[in-house]
Amino acid sequence: MTCFANLKRSLTVLATVALLGASAPGGAADSGIPMPSFMEPQGTQCVEDTDFMRRNHMEVILDHRDKTMHEGIRTKKHSLKECINCHAADYQGDEKSREQHFCVSCHQYTAAQPDCFQCHSLKPEQPGAAR
Amino acid sequence: MNETSEHTDLNRREFLTRSAATAGVALAPGVMLYSVAQARPADEPVSSAVRWGLLIDTNKCASGCSDCVSACERENGWGSGSTDETHSDAAQKAQWIRKVEVKNTETGHAFTLPMMCQHCENPPCADVCPTGASFRRDDGIVLVDKHICIGCRYCMMACPYKARSFVHETLTDQKPYAPRGKGTVEACTLCVHRVDAGDSPACVEACTAENHNAMLFGDLNDPASPIAKTVATYATTQIRADLNLNPGVRYQGI
Q1: ipTM > 0.90?
Q2: DSSP string, chain B
Q3: B19: pLDDT confidence band, cut at 50, 70 and 90?
Q4: How close A101 gets to chain B, by Cα (Å)?
């Protein structure tokens, strides 16, 4: 190989190694952004798989809300209120535990700002007031 | 051939037992020994077979009383039922239901009535809404879909009953079953979350619980319901009936 080709190859290898090294798991230590940490959900398991929910919970909620509003369908499976009842069962509404809230902590980590909670309460339904 | 004849060979005793059981369950047409569950199943969409309505008897409505208003505030989390809206003045704060005092200047007859969204059959708010957020559900309840509402307030201008309010401030104290938010318009939902569960609106329940019995809720399309029977027996009026909106809220004594 020519001298230049050698140099090019070395630089490519070096760059690849550097990139691989930087993308190590456990981004907390490297990037300083706290990993999502939230209170334990109630119940045994979610209505869908974790992987499915990670990618698709927005579509699921988006579809269900139209059914609820316009057709009055109030099945619990994809209801946002029921998600919160399970995932944020211990949240009382105080500022301190807001960062431990399931929805809030993950959206903070991903820097996603859905406007759901401008209207929807983060608090779970109290028994007795449940509708 | 032998098998089929066994199936159809119902002996006389069995026949009598079965018909007695069926008759016992239904004493007469429409009269059942058990009561059918009121709520529509959660996975069933609403249908126009039902038309929810309110009947308010102003003869029974007392001048100083605002039990319906307080109940609505507590149930839906506005006004005194909320810690929010601290920067809004009285005219800006949300108001889903209000008591109106009316006096006929000719005769001197004074009466009072609660005024809320009239859940019209031809709602002007839904007509003017540029996004379709203001809509009439098939069962007669007029709602604001706050996911779609852009807060233009055209519906507030269009409503002859001044039923709608705009939320000017960030809210934090919403009820989980009654979302409300800044920049959207809201109004009486006829407690749709309660109605869908088979209950009646909070205002009606409070009025009945305090024994004023001025408010009645039910299905106007069901001839057996108390409300349908009452509007068929006694004269009732709609406010601004001349506008041909056909509200679902009717009043007696005005």
Answers
A1: no
A2: -HHHHHHH---HHHHHHHHHHHHHHEEETTEESSPPP-SPPTTSPP-TT--EEEEEETTS--TT--HHHHHHHHHHT-GGG-S---S--TTTS--SEEEEEEE-TTT--EEEEEEE---BSS-HHHHH-SSS-EEE-TTS-EEE-TTT-----HHHHH-TT---EE--S-----BTTB---TT-EE---TTHHHHTTT---HHHHHHHHTT---EEEEETT-TTSHHHHHHHHS--B-TTGGG---BSEEEE--
A3: low
A4: 15
